[in-house]
Amino acid sequence: MQVIDRYAYSNRIRQVDPAYKAALSVAVLLLCLVLNEPLVGLAAAAGMWLLAVGVAGLPGRTFGQMLFAEAFFLTLVTAGVAVSIGFGAPGDAGRYALRLGPVWLSSGPESLSLAARLVTRALGGAAAMNFLAMTTPLVDLIDLFRRLGLPAALIDVMALTYRFIFILMDSLDRMYVAQNSRLGYRSWRRALASAGQLAARLFIDAYQRSERLQTALDSRAYQGELRVLPAAYQRDDALLWCGFLVIVGLLVVWSAL
Amino acid sequence: MKPIIEFVDVYYRYPGQPRFALQGFSVQVPAGEKIAVIGRNGSGKSTFFLHCNGLYRPQAGAVFYDGKPLDYSRAGLQTLRRHVGICFQNPDDQLFSASVAQDISFGPLNLGLKDSEARRRVEQAAEFCDVTGLLDRPTHALSGGEKARVALAGVLAMDPDVIIVDELMSTLDPWVRLHIIAIFERLHRHGKTLMLATHDLTVVESWATYVIVMAAGRTLFAGSPATLLSDAALLHETGLEHVWSRAGEWTAVSL
Fold first, then answer.
1. Which of A65, A229, A249, B241 could be joined to B235 by an S-S link, Cβ 3.0–4.6 Å?
2. Complex ipTM, two decimals?
3. Which residue of B lies nearest to A218 if distances are taken between CA atoms?
C-alpha cells in the first residue's frame, strides 16, 4: 500500500487532472466488461502496462509484478469454474477427468474457456484500476469525488480514513517495537497475548486521537464540514492521445475477432 | 500593560478526574509580548491554552478577550477563533488532511474566505513557515520538523492576533527549534502576541519578554524573566531554583 502511495506521488502524470486518468481507467474497465473477450482483456492489460511505463514513467517490472500477482489470485478464484468436483464419473465425452478416490475432478473446453474469459476480463479491468491507483494520489481522487458531487459526509470520512491509516500504522509500528523489545513476541503464546493487547490499545489510541483531532479542528473554526481548497491540475495531451489509442486498440482487437 | 487575554479565578476539572486542572487560575496575558509558559507536566498549561479560544469553558470564573468576557455562542466562538490560534503539541493530532496545501487551506475556508483569498493565505503562510516546497507533498511523508512547521502554517493562515504554541518544540532537534523561534521572531515583529509552553529554560532566558509560571492549576509567577531569575526567594518558591542552580546535584529534584 505504501508502495502504491509512493508511485502515486512520484509518477510523471501526477499533476494531471484526475478526471482524465479516472475517465481513461473507467473506459478501459467498461470495455473489458462489455466486450467480454479474452483477447480484449489481455490487450487492455498490455495497453495499461504501456501507458504506465511509457506515459507515467512507472517501472515496468513493478507494474508487471502487480499484474502477475492479480492474475495468480484470479486464476485461483476461477479454478472453481474451470474444474468441477463431483461424486461419480462425468458422463459427457470430451471432458478431462481425474479420479481421486470417490471424488471426480473434471473439466472441459467450455468451462476452460469460460474461466479464461473471466480471468482475462478481470485482469484487464484490474490493470486499468492499477494504472489509476499508481498514478493518482488518493487526495486527488477524493478531490474528484468532491467535484462529482458526492455527499460531503462521505468525502470527509474517506479523507480522514486515508490520513488515519498512516497515523495508526505508525502507532502500531511503535507499539509493536516496544512490545518486541520487552520480549513480547518471544513465544507463540506470548505473541498471541501481545498482539491482543496491542489491538486493544490501538483502539483506545485511535479513539483518543480522534478526540484530540476534534479539538484541533474546532480550534481552527471547524463547522461540521472539512472544507479545503481544490488542487490545481494540468492537462497532458500525450496521456489523452495515448489513452485514446489504447481504447481504439481495444475496439480494433474486438472487431477483428 | 494591556492584557489581551485575562483569566479571573478560573476552575476546570476534567470529567472523571479527582483533581482540578485549573483551580483559581488568574492571569493577564499582555498584548504583543513573547510569553513563555512554564510549569511541570500536569500543572495546567494545556488546559489554560484550551480555554483561550473557547475550546473549554470554565466551570467557575471567567475568561476575557480584549476586555470582554468570552462569548460562547456559535458566532462568538467563530470570531474568537479567528483571533486566537492554537498550534497543538503533536502535529499529527492537528494535520487531518493527507495533502499539505489542503490542510493549510482548512482554517481560511472556515473563516468564510473566498477560494482566491484562501489560496493567497495558504501561499503566504507557507512562505512564512518555509514550507512552500512541501505544499505538494503528502502529509504522512513529512518529517517531524516539517510537520510542525506545516501545523504552524495552518494556524497562521487564519491570521490570528494571538498565537499559542503548546510544547510543539519538545521533540524537535535544536536546529528545527531555532528555525521555529526565527518564525516566532518575525511574527513578533508583525505585532502578534505569542505564547509558548516550554520546558526549555534557554527559551525563557533568551527569547521571552514575559513569563508565566504555573503549578497545580494556579499562577505562581507572571512577570519579566529578569525579575524571576534575579529573585532568589521567588525562584525558591516556584521550585525552579533546584533545576537551575544546582546542576550536577541529581538528588535536588523531587519527583
1. B241
2. 0.84
3. B55
